[in-house]
Amino acid sequence: MKKKGKDIFIFNAAVGEIFLLVSMIFAISVLMSEEVSADGHATLPVGIQIKPGTQIKILPSKIPTAANAFGSQKMYAIPVKPTANTLDSVSYYDKGLYEVKGTSDFATAGNLYTPEEIETIYGYKLTTANPYASQGYEGVSIGRSKPFLVNSPVWGSLVQGVMFAAVVVGVVQLVGNLAGLDKPLIDSLSYSLGGGIVGGMLVKGAIIKSIGTGSGGMANFFKFGSSKLPAGQAGFIWGMALSIALFVLTYKKEKKEIVKFTCLPYEPPSGGAKCEECNKDIFKPCSEYRCKSLGQACELLNPGTKEEKCAWVSRNDVKSPIITPEPKAFAPSELNLKFEPDKSIRPPAIGVKIISPNGREGCVPAFTPLEFGFATDEPAQCVVSWNHTNSFDETFANGFYVGDNSYFIYNHTQRMKLPNENLMAPLLQNDGTFGLFARCKDANGNYNVDEYSFKFCVEKGPDTTPPVVEGFSIPSGSYITFNKDNLDIEMYVNEPAECKWSTQSKEYNLMENIMTCGVKTYEINAELMYACSTKLTGIKDREDNKFYFRCLDQPEAIESSSRNVNLQSKEYIVKGSKPLDIISVKPNETISGSTEFVSVELEVETSNGAEENGNAVCMVSPDGAIGSYIEMFETKSYKHKQAYNLVGNDYSFFFRCIDAGGNSAENSTSFRVIVDKDSPKITRVYKDEALKLVTDENAECVYSSTTCNFQFKDGKKMEYSKADVQNNHFAEWKENGVYYIKCKDDYQNQPDESKCSLIVRAVDLVSKSS
Questions:
Q1: Which of 115, 244, 301, 418 is the most buried (most CB within 10 A)?
Q2: DSSP state for residue 638 in the 8-state scheme
Q3: What is the CATH code of the structural domain delimited by 682-769?
Q4: β partners of residue 582
Q5: CA 206, 209, 214, 215: dihedral to nearest 10 degrees?
């Protein structure tokens, strides 16, 4: 909001300056190009040509009385025909007579003429009708012409406009730089004011010329509503409009800034002034989450009981956390660094400096990931800054949380990569060292007012090691999508460098492709490395594509002889792939079950692709809509499974699989689910040397010779007439025997314990009749 308000202020100020300067220029131009008569009436514009060698000004110098022939009306001399005589002035004398002054013999002082004589001799008609009233002028007289460029409407206006524009541009450049305005703003004001002044003056000249020739074309074009504006006003308005338009089109504010983004968990307010609020709602029990969200120092007492209460713990704590360096937290360990109290700091400020085992200040090799830590005597948040600050919030505003987290903890660790001495120049103090200044805050908002400093330095010796390639955004050996011949990657190096690549391992200077690398300290990434980006091209399918990288350090060094280059190339492999195929999906037939929900297992099998054996990640969706796919429960191989419990209905499922190279494949399946809760029905019973029966579905049948009230497992099993046909059953024929038969299907549907599927009495009707 502040930035938006500032931009609005700048725009309004610029428009105001445009208005004032354009107004001033047009006021000056009026005074320079137009004259005012003795009686104070405004004159006609410069350049209106009545006839060669003359121009029109205001008259009369005397006002006629009511007794005169023309009454009290003002008189105007209007040219009606060319004449060699030139008038300087025409003044009313008395009794309808006029005194004429001019170059002819008749036009001498004291000669009096009637209006008719003036028209006959001089070619001017005296009238009360003012043809220039619409332009804001009140009278006419005759005067000698001015120089060509001033007297010519268009050329005179153009010359004046250019002159004034040059003056204004110079003033804007001078005043803007003295006021410290941004150069884009100064330049935009210069362009807009200069262009507006020249354009406005040309509009003014065009209107004057149009009126002078009697066409009225430009005057009609530049009228507003039903009224025609005077040339000066019209030029001013159009000049203003052009200036503002040019300013809007040319002013572009471009500025590079370092923007810090932090993604941190929600933090309750410091202290615990609102802890008791959690206990007041009798309908909503106070949980630990609700309690701690009300304040950093709130704690839930008596947890797990009926007397849970939220309270402000350590309400009277006014002590700030005490910072103690932790020597064991140094890394890398091979540097053997340690802390030593910094006696150069004035009391009561405290701090340490990092030194090496031999007692001198520990200068860390440039671009080494340095890690050190410290502890606090109570859980605390800690922030550090490169600059001296006055409060905890100011330290964070100019720095960052230790370890990039805002947790209230005891142990705090900071990891950083220090650039070389030249790149660190803005951070160096007068004594040649630099450091971090820390503040820690407890849950009650107490923080150490005096900063705790950690001082260290970077080795000043010459850089003799070439850049080290730490890794790539996409690991070497990764697959690429089939039929894609290029790949955007980033390569990470341990120090600022210039890097190149080639498809052959060759010297740095011979490599053909240049990478774009970050070389500023603020361009370091979260892993404390510098990124170089490029697009690898010429990648082939179904084979390993090899690329080679080399780097040259110290990109801002003046002397190339001091720069270190990789003597060995860093190899990088991109694996080409095949298209991914889905070769099988299941189920695709009717599925039956005896419960309300039937378990159905979806199966997908993939082949080829990046890893050839078809390894992929498959997802499934019930409708194929974007965003509805979920990863299958068993996947990341060439066989993929997902179980569902479905009710009886018709179903379609959609599958989408993606392999390591980004190759994708899609397929779908449809099937029907039938819920079968009925026990098998016996549809036919007959004798064929044995008792035979047929069921309406595959089933297993047993019988008892005494009762229907028996367990299925206790019945005597009936055999299948054919092993592969499980709905035809038979049992030994027993004359006059009774068969209490129960049958159950594959889903264990069977009659109740006291009921039978069928009761059959074995009676040989044929033998009895004989």
A1: 418
A2: S
A3: 2.60.40
A4: 606
A5: -30
Distance separating alpha carbons of residues 231 and 251, to the nearest angstrom: 30
Please name the amino acid found at residue 738. Answer: V
CB atoms within 10 A of CB 193: 26
Indicate the residue type of 101: K
For the chain, how big is the Rg over CA atoms in Å?
50
Average pLDDT over residues 636-650: 93
Query: Is residue 306 left, alpha or beta, with left meaning phi > 0 and alpha meaning psi from -120 to 50?
Result: alpha
Q: Are strands 363-364 and 452-458 parallel, antiparallel or unpaired?
A: parallel
Query: Which three-class secondary structure state does DSSP give residue 208?
Result: helix
DSSP labels, 300-347 = EESTTSTT-EEEETTTT--PPPPEEEEEEEEESGGG--EEEE-TTSPT
∠ CA 460-462-466, nearest 5°, is: 125
Do 366 and 458 touch, CB atoms closer than 8 A?
yes
d(CA 69, CA 114): 10
Average pLDDT (237-256) is 77
Residue 46 near residue 61 (C-beta atoms within 8 A): no
**Alpha-carbon gap, residue 590 to 369, rounded angstroms:** 63
Name the DSSP class of 633.
Answer: S
Q: Please confirm whether the linkage preceding 285 is cis (ω < 30° from 0).
A: no
732: part of which helix (H) or strand (E)?
strand 725-732
> What is the 3-state secondary structure of 544-593?
EEEEEEEEEECCCCCCHHHCCECCCCEEEEEECCCCEEEEEEECCCCEEE
Q: What average pLDDT does this structure show over 415-442? A: 63
580-675: in CATH 2.60.40.10: yes
In 3D space, the residue among 344, 342, 340, 296 whose CA is nearest the CA of residue 321 turns out to be 296
751, 753, 754, 760: CA torsion to nearest 10: 50
The Cα–Cα gap between 469 and 517 comes to 13
Q: SS3 for 78-139, per residue?
A: EECCCCCCCEEEEEEEECCEEEEEECCCCCCCCCEECHHHHHHHHCEEEECCCCCHHHCCCC
344 close to 360: Cβ distance less than 8 angstroms:
no
Please say whether the structural domain 469-574 has been given the CATH code 2.60.40. Answer: yes
Look at residue 471 in the predicted model and tell me its pLDDT.
Answer: 93
Could you read off the pLDDT of 429-453 as tens digits, one per residue?
A: 434 567 789 999 988 889 998 889 8
Element (H, E) at 158: helix 153-178
How far separated are the first and last CA of the chain, in Å rounded?
A: 113
Q: Alpha helices of 583-740 — where are they, by DSSP H? A: none
Dig out the tokens for 362 from the structure.
Answer: 């520990």
Mean pLDDT (whole number) for 125-135: 60
For residues 350 and 340, the answer to whether their CB atoms sit within 8 Å is: no
Q: Can you tell me which residue has the tokens 């884009």?
A: 184
Q: Are 692 and 730 in contact (CB under 8 A)?
A: yes
Tokens 């509805």, residue?
628
The SS3 of residue 680 is: coil
Structure tokens at 290: 């609700």
| pLDDT value for 483 | 93
Q: Are strands 350-355 and 452-458 parallel, antiparallel or unpaired?
A: parallel
* Rounded Cα–Cα distance for residues 250 and 265 (Å): 43
Going by their DSSP bridges, the two strands 497-502 and 516-517 should be labelled as unpaired
Q: Where in the chain is the domain with CATH 2.60.40.10?
A: 580-675
Q: What is the pLDDT of residues 527-573, one digit of tens each?
A: 778 999 999 999 999 999 999 999 999 887 766 777 899 999 999 99
